[in-house]
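Hey, I'm writing a tutorial for new members on how sequence and structure tokens pair up, and I'd like a real worked example in the thread rather than a made-up one. If someone can provide the structure for the chain below, I'll link this post from the tutorial.
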Amino acid sequence: MPRVSAANHQRYAQARRDVILNAALRIFAQTSFAEAKMDEIAAAAELSKGTLYLYFPTKEALLQSLIRRYSLLPELPEMVESMREVPPELGIPTLVAEIWRRFRARKDLASVIVREIHSNPHRAKLFTAQVGLRAYRSLADYLDTWMKRGVLRRQDPLAAAQCLFGMLWFFLLSQELMGGKDLHPLSDETVATTAAQMFLCGALAPRIPSDRKPVSSAANRPPRRRS
């Protein structure tokens, strides 16, 4: 093993961790957390088993580091921030298309999340706290901005963000992980367009023509009958 200067040690160690985590993700996706062996992960990372244990003393520590290190959408907060002033009718379809593209590219990670994290309450809570809520909140902030401006219906923005994610997550599960693409394949455009349009149909606030004033509730009341 080449000697590493003190100045580069941290960078070298992080690169080793990344290699190990990438290898673990491949092994966990191919088999399962319970069946995967540490020596298999070491072999996939082209490292000795002793080196692997130096960075990750247990398999559970390795999985939890995977949860923290990898998010399905680590770029989402920056994506949302760059589109903060883009109206939802344009912004939502763009975000949905980008989210779906990244979901599909990370289907191995999604498979591990479903099999090893959602089935374990402790891991699921850790994932929700460290990964899920961060993604939901960034989108919720965008939705809340346009709710306050009257463009979107006023509702719980975090619930609305989870609703949008939920549609795309189910498309990922059904198409990529449950064999749906072999039975009824859907194009990326179909998935993104359908999810965006369904969300916007329920989220957009009703528009009032500029030449019409809102009718008061009193004007809508039927006339009283005379006794």
